[in-house]
Amino acid sequence: MKSHLESLEIAELIEKLKKNGCGELVDALLNNESDVYTKKGRLNKSGACRIMKIKTKKLEDLLEEAKLVLTDSV
Q1: DSSP 8-class letter at 53
Q2: In angstroms, rounded to a whole number, what is the distance separating the alpha carbons of residues 45 and 62?
Q3: Other Cβ atoms within 10 Å of 5 Cβ, number
Q4: Cβ distance 17 to 70 under 8 Å?
Q5: What DSSP letter does each residue of 17-49 carry, written as one string?
Q6: Which of 17, 44, 73, 74 has its CA at 20 to 30 Å from residue 6's CA atom?
Q7: Is the pTM of this model over 0.70?
Q8: Where are the domains of the chain?
Q9: What are phi and psi of 37, to 5 degrees?
Q10: 3-class SS at 60?
Q11: How far does the chain reach from its first CA to its final CA, in angstroms?
């Protein structure tokens, strides 16, 4: 179970991603968890691509952009 502090930190990171142009990715992943994540919690790239109607390369580019945004926040 997440503490209140952890929930606030996660909310801040999500907001930072959205403000830096990763909103579509964040929304797709959060709103379609059962379709884009496996039972073990791993990203199902084909499921995410299907939901977002994009190719795998574009998804990988979006994920890399999100990583850069989060790396800058540390």
Answers
A1: T
A2: 12
A3: 8
A4: yes
A5: HIIIIIHHHHHHHHHTHHHHB-TTS-B-HHHHH
A6: 44
A7: yes
A8: 4-73
A9: -125, 145
A10: helix
A11: 24
If one compares 73 and 8, the residue with the highest pLDDT of the two is: 8
Residue listed under structure tokens 């991603």: 17
Contacts of 60 (CB under 8 A, 6+ apart): 45
Whole-angstrom distance, CA of residue 45 vs CA of residue 51: 10
Neighbours of 36 (CB within 10 A): 22
Q: Number of helices (H) and strands (E), helices first, in the chain?
A: 5, 0
- With cut-offs at 50, 70 and 90, classify the pLDDT of residue 1: low
| CA 42/CA 52 separation, integer angstroms | 17
Structure tokens of 5? Answer: 């502090």
pLDDT tens per residue, range 5-56? 899 999 999 999 999 999 999 999 999 999 999 999 999 999 999 999 999 9
